[in-house]
Amino acid sequence: xxxxxxxxxxxxxxxxxxxxxxxxxxxxxxxxxxxxxxxxxxxxxxxxxxxxxxxxxxxxxxxxxxxxxxxxxxxxxxxxxxxxxxxxxxxxxxxxxxxxxxxxxxxxxxxxxxxxxxxxxxxxxxxxxxxxxxxxxxxxxxxxxxxxxxxxxxxxxxxxxxxxxxxxxxxxxxxxxxxxxxxxxxxxxxxxxxxxxxxxxxxxxxxxxxxxxxxxxxxxx
Amino acid sequence: xxxxxxxxxxxxxxxxxxxxxxxxxxxxxxxxxxxxxxxxxxxxxxxxxxxxxxxxxxxxxxxxxxxxxxxxxxxxxxxxxxxxxxxxxxxxxxxxxxxxxxxxxxxxxxxxxxxxxxxxxxxxxxxxxxxxxxxxxxxxxxxxxxxxxxxxxxxxxxxxxxxxxxxxxxxxxxxxxxxxxxxxxxxxxxxxxxxxxxxxxxxxxxxxxxxxxxxxxxxxx
Amino acid sequence: xxxxxxxxxxxxxxxxxxxxxxxxxxxxxxxxxxxxxxxxxxxxxxxxxxxxxxxxxxxxxxxxxxxxxxxxxxxxxxxxxxxxxxxxxxxxxxxxxxxxxxxxxxxxxxxxxxxxxxxxxxxxxxxxxxxxxxxxxxxxxxxxxxxxxxxxxxxxxxxxxxxxxxxxxxxxxxxxxxxxxxxxxxxxxxxxxxxxxxxxxxxxxxxxxxxxxxxxxxxxxxxxxxxxxxxxxxxxxxxxx
Amino acid sequence: xxxxxxxxxxxxxxxxxxxxxxxxxxxxxxxxxxxxxxxxxxxxxxxxxxxxxxxxxxxxxxxxxxxxxxxxxxxxxxxxxxxxxxxxxxxxxxxxxxxxxxxxxxxxxxxxxxxxxxxxxxxxxxxxxxxxxxxxxxxxxxxxxxxxxxxxxxxxxxxxxxxxxxxxxxxxxxxxxxxxxxxxxxxxxxxxxxxxxxxxxxxxxxx
Amino acid sequence: xxxxxxxxxxxxxxxxxxxxxxxxxxxxxxxxxxxxxxxxxxxxxxxxxxxxxxxxxxxxxxxxxxxxxxxxxxxxxxxxxxxxxxxxxxxxxxxxxxxxxxxxxxxxxxxxxxxxxxxxxxxxxxxxxxxxxxxxxxxxxxxxxxxxxxxxxxxxxxxxxxxxxxxxxxxxxxxxxxxxxxxxxxxxxxxxxxxxxxxxxxxxxxx
Lengths: 221, 221, 241, 207, 207
Ligand code: HEM
Ligand SMILES: Nc1ncnc2c1ncn2[C@@H]1O[C@H](COP(=O)(O)OP(=O)(O)OP(=O)(O)O)[C@@H](O)[C@H]1O
Ligand SMILES: Nc1ncnc2c1ncn2[C@@H]1O[C@H](COP(=O)(O)OP(=O)(O)OP(=O)(O)O)[C@@H](O)[C@H]1O
Ligand SMILES: [Mg+2]
Ligand SMILES: [Mg+2]
What we know:
heteropentamer; C: 79% helix; globular; D: alpha/beta; 6 helices; binds adenosine-5'-triphosphate; binds magnesium ion
């Protein structure tokens, strides 16, 4: 347990050292949320409709852009060997890393989402759903991302290949998450919410095992 | 010149080895372009309107996700020292790397854009503008991206900070590029095109020098 | 004489300690007069009514955002070319202030936009968007400083970034002329003299000067802290040498 | 520290990326002994150490750690828990200070040893507060030695531990290995240099 | 290969991250000479080499390369073009094969030397076709030696060139350095080991 906490705090600290941590993540979300309207156009009603989608995409992006911090850095500087030989088993180590990743990329988004919703003109009645869906769903992004990161460990700088592996796998979360927000806007049930929760639980439960397997595969090299 | 070509082909080859190269980039573009309709909804007319924006955002994403391949990998394995001591000056080396980056991420998008336009229901009269704007503008993404990558060299795994630096700087290209496509659709002049071209020329001309400066200040470490 | 005197951080500390109370006092007085004048002693605009008073906060803040960035870029150039140690300190210390003024301009601008244009925000408006980009460039600049813990290297990297980002400044200023925007074109800083009514111009100018002194005061404070922090750091590092 | 009485390697064969590196390796090292693993570049020293540590699966053969308590451990994951490791890289996080790195190692291993004392012992006390990014090659290696001490494991597997170390560092490393074995530990050291210790030598021949 | 008659270091002072590493270093190495740079971990050997190579700017002082043709080079960027470098890392791309790496180096330096012959000379001929990712530490170091030969530069700056090399590799490295100097080259070698060559020695003391 002490080792778990040590690894968790170390990873969080590293995220902060690599430039600002949570405030950096916050700036990133604000940036992406304000860039999307360029592409989509300036129609405010439309913007409000797709606000959920935009924030979900931002979350996916932040996850993607910071995934290589998850295992790759540790692989290259030998820390992954150290972890593989530590009293912590690789499953627990992966779990700690996934949690740290979520705390530094997912959680800031959840906390910031009301503000970003305002920026994107999200209708008032959808705020609850926005926050809840992000809170429930973003851990799945970190979890699935970790699996991809572990599997592509030995591909140096495999940014695109990682994206190609991870994006299709997290699409369900993006779709359910965005629809959950839409549903709340239009009062069309809670189906998406349930699917999102189920997906997230499954992804989070599975990911430490799958990513530990990926790490084990690569750490031999 | 021979050294320039050697570095160029090496970097292209490395991009291919790191998982598929151009076909990987192509798959990535197809993936992003097919994900967006989920977020935005299936309205075909709307989709056609924002097609230019979507493709421009995909290009920016592909550039961002592969930026750390540009200098960081070379920094860590000592290749950047070798380059700094080679007969090629760092400006030329940066130019070769930027060109290689464009060939492996920008060019595939240009070539693929007609197909993706079809997928996104782009109106026929806008194809010329789409292809031309991407062809003119994507080099700027690689160029500005290289500056950001060079400056953040010593920040290990600075994925998010890199995004935070690069995205604001490339926003003009995104805006002008997307508007150029819109202009072609609505016959509203060619102003955006000219601005895009000016921005791109300036960015491409400046980037080898700025990124060489970034490399130089980090290679001491 | 001035330059060589300032080049020495210690002399700078002494000098700025004597100067900063004066800048503070001037800022307080000017802003006091400016606020009173602009809020209570100006007539409501015949078009805009009372909401014109936002102008006295908005315009100086917007100007400061741009002015500070230009200053930062200038200092960065000096730092890169002449390796002047204080130039880096000045640029680093100015950035958060510039970001704050820019954020204030965005905030007051959109509050003003509601009564004037019927919307808080208009995507696609070149001035608004470029101002937002300016804010993000500030944030990226600050983040880069924070991310690199070697101050020598951080200073150079941030300076290159500041110079590259400087391209945004003219775009912001001229955006109103180049594109058809909601935002009104220049009415003060323009060829042919200001087109704004004297009753507004004088308090506005007072506010602008007041903002400038406020900035100078805060800048001096931040630079003092930064220099002391660097000293503490090099003492710490020297112990390890 | 659990007590180990013997490390036994039996008919060990290693393949990497489909290529056979060595085959039918046999040796045993008893409690209190140092063994150096020598051989040409590419002979498979690092690979052998990775297999013994449980990091790399062997193609065939066995590695058994016989415990003083009587039972034997042959599962890779369990071997990993008994191994103190020093590889080519030191597992040092560049963004953390020397002390933060050491404290992390201590917490990870649940070490009950005084961290400041260990840093002093490996000669890093004076620079405990600086970011590890700024360490010289040998200073980083010394931090690796500190980790080794903090791990408090009975079996030490060291891959060229002397590289980058200065004369004092080499003496320190040899001393640490000696003390470790005097305490009943075992050390297997892949190296091209002489340790300056009384050690058994094993040669990995070319295949 | 341009011909160098003297490397002169005068009052060289080095600062890294705002910390003084060494100050007022003075030495000169003439054509045909080897000089080893010795000193404790963290004394600044690697930093000194980086400065001489022009990779790292000095805080003060001068480095001058006097050419046989009479003129002297003191600009960092120009020094870089005269330097053959072997640092802690070898600049080998993991995804390329050994041969691809070597061919790239040859093209980069515009070398007119037979690449296959060089690979044979450093003992990598047999594995020229395998991805460099699979190289052992010493094999990678040998590829670094190959690069050094291909660079064909008059001034060699080597940072612990013997590390990871086996006995034959060490002999090879020493031989290469010897031949280089016999051809009128200059070599400055930071090392904690003995090269087995007739070399001037310079100690970098602690500050
Ligand atoms: C979010 C919305 C807004 C933003 C981001 C914004 C931004 C700016 C900026 C950057 C400037 C300084 C430009 C320069 O001189 O280079 C400026 C000046 C000014 N703004 Fe705004 N503004 C906003 C809304 C408004 C509104 C709603 C009004 C009133 C209708 C307004 C009136 C002015 C005036 C009168 C000036 C001084 C112009 C001059 O003389 O140059 N702004 N604004
Ligand atoms: N990248 C860097 N940034 C800041 N300081 C550094 C950096 N690299 C090294 N230093 C510091 O400079 C000093 C000299 O380091 P250098 O690597 O030159 O030593 P060295 O003599 O090569 O040591 P070693 O024998 O361990 O290789 C050390 O105190 C180190 O902490
Ligand atoms: N990650 C890897 N994947 C595939 N093959 C590898 C890998 N690492 C090493 N090899 C191969 O395995 C063989 C043994 O390598 P190893 O690193 O164990 O040698 P070594 O004895 O430690 O050599 P050195 O003295 O150079 O360190 C070499 O032929 C090498 O090419
Ligand atoms: Mg080895
Ligand atoms: Mg060194």
